[in-house]
Design goal:
The chain is of the alpha/beta class and 393 residues long. The chain is 27% helix and 21% strand. Strands 7-6-5-4-3-2-1-8 form an 8-stranded parallel sheet. It binds alpha-D-galactopyranose (GLA). The site of alpha-D-galactopyranose (GLA) has 9 residues, from loops.
């Protein structure tokens, strides 16, 4: 399913002329191909908050394998806030909370690696995390060294308690420290979009950057974040992705249709697909959403541009989103933001497809293929989406 090789082979012009180049080799990614496609994995925060421990993380790694998520492309098991003890150790190093993580982070990394997965961890570019625990501002070199020693593969780096020091300076310091360890570590900037990280994230070695404040498990939260992605398309691409925040699929406060829309849209936006639910007890329905191969293939495909808003009808509360795929086909999301079922259509001529008498559309949720002549059309439930991949027949 992953198409890193395709993405890597695309000529640079296809990768977006406006994309800034990395200025400083000390903050470049530590391995070619790291985050070449949007990272996929799981993170503890959305479902568990601070209620985490080593059993949860290890059981989640087990579930990622047994549920089929690993085979579908999910790779990172990420521990968010609250893994660290309330104080640094005598040598000034971060240490794991002795109750929640009595065997330390290295033991968890070994366990996760043993499952063919990778481990992610969290800190803040501030004096304390958002939950008031020790964080990495002015400790970047020591902390990055520890993360590397423990075998960490991914760092989500938050923005709380930043002492109002410039973001670029704070995120650059950690990036350089990570780079200096020599270990390939995905660097995830969690700066909430406050200082337009899409404009500088890539130069400071960021491989994904949050574009907004936190998501919650509500339709209005998800849609509010969606609206803020318009205009950011040109900053996204292999090695550096806009991050509209982690998934809420399966957390229980949105409907089935709403979760279908959430996952469809995140894939269309080339968002990192970081599940945020309890993988150990998820329903078959949730698993089927998160492991939908055709939708994941859209997310992981780099056709030269993040998906964009094509039509916005504020009267019917419907939108059409489209994303070019590397093979010239188009991924299309027909979004019904309203509270009544409706039919949404888009002229194939508007989708940027080469002219043809007939097109073939795969309905990625119904798993059916249909022939399309003039318009691509579908009934869409309230607060829901239909999603297609359409190409010349
Ligand atoms: C911030 C981040 C969240 C999460 C919490 C943890 O709010 O944006 O994603 O990491 O901190 O405290």
């Amino acid at each position: 399913m992953r198409i890193n090789a395709v993405a890597m082979c695309l000529p640079l012009v296809l990768l977006g002329a406006a994309r800034p180049h990395i200025a400083d080799p000390a903050v470049a990614s530590t391995a070619p191909g790291l985050a070449a496609t949007p990272p996929m994995g799981w993170n503890s925060w959305n479902k568990f908050g601070c209620n985490i421990d080593e059993q949860l993380i290890e059981q989640t790694a087990d579930a990622m394998v047994s549920s089929g998520m690993r085979v579908a492309g999910y790779q990172y098991v990420n521990i968010d806030d609250c893994w660290m003890a309330k104080t640094r150790d005598a040598a000034g190093n971060l240490q794991a909370d002795p109750v929640r993580f009595p065997h330390g982070i290295k033991a968890i990394a070994d366990y996760v690696h043993g499952k063919g997965l990778k481990l992610g961890i969290y800190s803040s570019a501030g004096t304390a995390t958002c939950q008031g625990l020790p964080a990495s501002l002015d400790h970047e070199v020591a902390d990055a060294k520890k993360f590397a020693e423990w075998g960490v593969d991914y760092l989500k780096y938050d923005n709380c308690n930043n002492q109002k020091r410039p973001a670029i300076e704070r995120y650059t310091a950690m990036s350089k420290a990570l780079k200096a360890t020599g270990r390939p570590i995905v660097f995830s900037l969690c700066e909430w979009g406050e200082n337009k990280p899409w404009e500088w994230g890539r130069q400071v070695g960021g491989m994904l950057w949050r574009t907004t404040g936190d998501i919650s498990d509500r339709w209005n939260s998800m849609i509010g974040i969606l609206d803020k992605q318009v205009g950011l398309e040109k900053y996204s691409g292999p090695g550096g992705w806009n991050d509209p925040d982690m998934l809420e699929v399966g957390n229980g406060r949105m409907s089935f249709s709403e979760y279908i829309a959430h996952f469809s849209l995140w894939a269309l936006l080339n968002a990192p697909l970081i599940a945020g639910n309890d993988l150990r007890s998820m329903s078959d329905t949730t698993r089927a959403i998160l492991t939908n191969r055709a939708v994941i293939a859209v997310d992981q495909d780099w056709g030269g541009q993040q998906g964009t808003l094509l039509h916005n009808d504020t009267t019917t509360h419907t939108q059409v989103w489209v994303k070019p795929m590397h093979d010239g086909s188009r991924a299309v999301v027909l979004l019904n933001r309203g509270s009544v079922a409706t039919s949404i259509s888009v002229a194939t001529a508007d989708l940027g497809l080469p002219p043809a008498k007939e097109y073939q559309a795969l309905d990625v949720w119904a798993h059916t293929v249909q022939t399309v002549l003039g318009d691509l059309q579908s009934g869409v439930p309230p607060h829901g989406a239909a999603m297609f991949v359409i190409k010349r027949k």
